[in-house]
Amino acid sequence: MANTPPDFDAVVVGAGFSGMYMLKTLRDKLGLKARVFEAGSNVGGTWYWNRYPGARCDSDSYIYCFTFDRQLLQEWEWSERYPEQPEILRYLEHVAARHDLKRDIQFGTKVTGASFDDTTQLWTVKTDKGDAVTARYVVAAVGTLSATNVPKFEGLESFRGKSYHTSQWPHEGVDFTGKRVGVIGTGATAVQAIPEIAQQAKQLTVFQRTANYCVPARNGKVDPEKVKARKADYDAIVQRIRSSFFGQEHYFIPKSALEATPEEREHEFDRMWDAGGFAFWLGNYQDMFFSAESNRLCADYIERKIRKSVKDPQVAEKLIPKGYAYGTKRQPLDTNYYETFNRDNVRLVDAEADGPIERITPTGVRAGGTDYAFDILVLATGFDAMTGPLKALNIAGRGGAKLEDAWKDGPRTYLGVAVAGFPNLFTITGPQSPSVLTNMPVSIEQHVDWISDCIAHLEANGKRTIEATTEAQDKWVAHVNEIVNMTLMPGANSWYMSANIPGKPKAFLPYLDPEGAGGYRKRCDEVAAKGYEGFALR
Ligand SMILES: Cc1cc2nc3c(=O)[nH]c(=O)nc-3n(C[C@H](O)[C@H](O)[C@H](O)COP(=O)(O)OP(=O)(O)OC[C@H]3O[C@@H](n4cnc5c(N)ncnc54)[C@H](O)[C@@H]3O)c2cc1C
Fold first, then answer.
1. Kind and range of the H or E element at 8?
2. Measuring CA to CA, which residue among 34, 37, 44, 33 is closest to residue 127?
3. What is the distance between the alpha carbons of residues 317 and 81, in angstroms, rounded to a whole number?
4. Which atom in ligand 1 lies closest to the alpha carbon of residue 127?
5. Taking the model in full, what pTM does it have?
6. pLDDT attached to residue 1
7. Given a cut of 90, is residue 217 above it in pLDDT?
């Protein structure tokens, strides 16, 4: 029994950035037999599903890509600073073709269960297409923002118009011309979509639960000289982003905002504001995430900008965030977002000032006692982030223990890449790793490299399983929470804090290493160098 050969060495779930690179590594570097299952009908993950108007990355394109293929870094030309979804999807399709990945990916297939057999020490992975395959390793490359969150609005089914969630957008697109449109949500996705929809729709109503601090994207063509210089410097860029705090070329100003004179501060704020993108968020004064007083100075600056952009002072007031610190929610990048509220065909319904959504009606939305009529409803209501896609895999580990039960009070992992009681299961950018706090391709490549080195180590040393110890996991969970509790992050009702979904156990989902993602990388490498400290290898 114990020697039953498995169908595959490894099963990978998901074919976005993570699953694609994991397959490449397992197959072409380690020479293993791997199978990828992907629910969508193509590669791309996030960029396959999220086709809403205005969908684009917020990371700079020159680093929002794979770095393992240095030749491709030289050859690929991004059209803009933040390319749109179709272009990123084209890039990922190109990578799949270039590395001949599709022959090992089974598309249109959702993994519905994975269970570990203590006797054979193999995983059995089941799919909605009736597959039941065995494998020694399972790698969850299911994404962090891939489990769609549709809030349980009363009456949603009764709506007679069309409704779309932004992450399940029809491939043929949606024509808003002449339509009355309601958008629910004002997170990073909505901030991209609202200005685009407003240009087409007859009337657009935006339902806001929580106002967001938005900073300018400043998208556009990148100066060809800059592109050339970056291409010449790619080796160093890769080094820098790998050792950086957030997987980006943004660095904190190494002092407190309170130490700067008002003039100096204003000058720095202007500089970051003008640079656009994540500069203001990730390259601000170093105590911005820790000191409420410093944070307020940043928030004040953004509030002044909002008041300047939005003509109606009452609307501006509603758009100004209240009750949480700047930067503690995912930073939306703004291209005409605030200005869109100056249009005659756009109105804002704020849960606090105007009353929350009470229900969806056959003709639209009832909020604060008022009925709003729509032809189209857009749900920009985000995701069951990080834990959602993993729990949906129905994973049973040693002794049939369910991951869902192990995580009933929030995720418990070791390094965000493994879970005690679930041998040979790896989670790429899993909960309690830097993941969504970083430029994701950098964290994805780091995890894939670490996982493949780990598997190579097991193979070379005749070990059948690796499993995080409960002790190491408990320490890691305590450490993750200890660090985040030193910051202002827990004060926000963010999806980072699991607070976007009623009833979701309150937990900080990613991990903020005191030395950033670069520091986390060092920790992971040290664990490996010490013979996989905190893991049991058998
Ligand atoms: C709108 C949007 C914009 C973003 N912009 C940025 C950005 O600017 N910068 C950044 O760093 N990150 C960004 N992200 C995060 C983004 O998810 C990552 O950058 C990256 O694409 C993640 O790749 P992945 O392969 O890990 O996951 P995904 O791309 O989410 O791919 C996971 C895949 O797994 C599949 N899957 C899940 N469960 C199953 C199952 N049970 N069976 C079969 N298949 C399954 C899904 O169908 C999906 O295709 C953005 C996310 C969104 C939603």
1. strand 8-13
2. 37
3. 31
4. 42
5. 0.98
6. 45
7. yes
